[in-house]
Specification:
The protein has 224 residues and is α+β, with helices and mostly antiparallel strands. It has one domain. The protein contains 9 helices and 3 strands, in the order αβααββαααααα. It is flat. The relative contact order is 0.12.
Length: 224
């Protein structure tokens, strides 16, 4: 039986993300403590939210018997968020949360500068953009691991692919094609499996088709 887009998305979330209660249990703290760290910008925020409304109906009755219009929300965090939670909890033993947040941001800036230098990528046009995507959970939807190293590898690969894509397949040099192949593989390796609603696979797919690259692109979460 063919899965719906909704079912594909649910499977994607269950494989790559954890809920707030799961994250709290894994880190040995309360849900409130996780939210406190998130609100203080000590850890990356949740990436997805599942909102549900409960409606009870009965055969032969047109109107709903009961309807809970208050949304029930489940927050999903990237699977690797627990590493950041544990690091923040450890730091918070010796400093307040504002100081922890400042330290996290400073370390992020230092690592990002070392990895990217002055290169401007689509997701890292400047530090504030990169940091904003990091701390609000946006990077959680496209990175296989929440780390600056993974972020840099994905963005540099994306940058190199876009640059080489401007060339003509008929005149591209062998070395440039090897570089493109490596970039596409790095992009796929650093990127999270492409979800049913995503478009990240398009760049890699276009490069593979245009230059006839020997690279396999897994799109198991995409529907027809």
């Amino acid at each position: 039986m063919k899965l719906s887009k909704h079912q594909h998305m649910q499977l994607f979330l269950e494989k790559n993300y954890i809920t707030l209660p799961q994250l709290a249990k894994h880190c040995g703290v309360s849900e409130a403590e996780i939210l406190t760290l998130e609100n203080a910008q000590c850890i990356p925020g949740h990436t997805y939210a599942l909102r549900q409304i409960l409606i009870f109906s009965c055969t032969g009755i047109d109107e709903a018997l009961t309807e809970n219009t208050a949304l029930t929300t489940t927050w999903y965090y990237h699977n690797s968020t627990d590493l950041w939670v544990k690091e923040a909890l450890l730091a918070s033993k010796n400093m307040n949360l504002a100081a922890v947040a400042a330290q996290v941001k400073a370390n992020f800036a230092k690592q990002l500068r070392k990895a990217l230098g002055d290169i401007k990528t689509p997701g890292c046009q400047n530090f504030e953009q990169a940091w904003g995507y990091w701390i609000d959970g946006t990077w959680g939807k496209c990175l296989k691991e929440i780390s600056v190293d993974c972020l840099a590898r994905k963005e540099l690969a994306r940058y190199n692919i876009a640059e080489i894509m401007q060339q003509d397949p008929a005149t591209i040099s062998k070395n440039t094609k090897i570089k493109l192949t490596a970039a596409v593989k790095n992009y796929i390796a650093a990127s999270l499996d492409f979800d049913a609603y995503g478009m990240r696979y398009l760049l890699a797919e276009e490069a593979i088709k245009k230059f006839q690259l020997d690279v396999i692109l897994d799109k198991k979460y995409l529907t027809d």
